[in-house]
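Re: the 186-residue chain
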Amino acid sequence: MTDKITGSEEEMPGLLLVDDDLTFCEVLGQALEKRGFTVFTAKDLEEALTLAEEHDPEYAVIDLRIGQESGLVLVERLKALDENTRIVMLTGYASIATAVEAIKLGAMHYLTKPADADEIVAALHRESGDSGVAPSPQPISVKRLEWEHLQKVLMECNGNISAAARALGMHRRTLQRKLNKRPVKS
């Protein structure tokens, strides 16, 4: 962005946006550019790592599921490239297990879809947790507990569905079907 008065080039921070939904990437990328970021979009882990090495982005917004790959792998790799990269994990398949892992691996925040550009920008700039978040007044439902347990076992098996199915004592297709469903609300 060029300053009209001085003619100097104002540096906009780089942001790596990684999601396999190309329409979502395009719309969110445009919204983030309007908020002052230079956005680099990738549809898979390989492309994301190439862009990260080329542009050294200050920020990253990463989908948890990128095709059949886990965005958690990318969080770990980006932090290895530059520990100061501020990362937000974005997902439509939220679980406690993946949220904990994302934070342990170095993500600043974990947001569920749909999240708008303002929420994402706020999360990228947030320095600490919010002690004012109220605990849920109701216990988690049995269906949600099942979802959480499946996610935990899948994480323990490094995302290997066949190994997770064996550990759970169920058929691989049954596990895949359960994992492809959106998680139920608490």
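The two ends are 44 Å apart (CA to CA).
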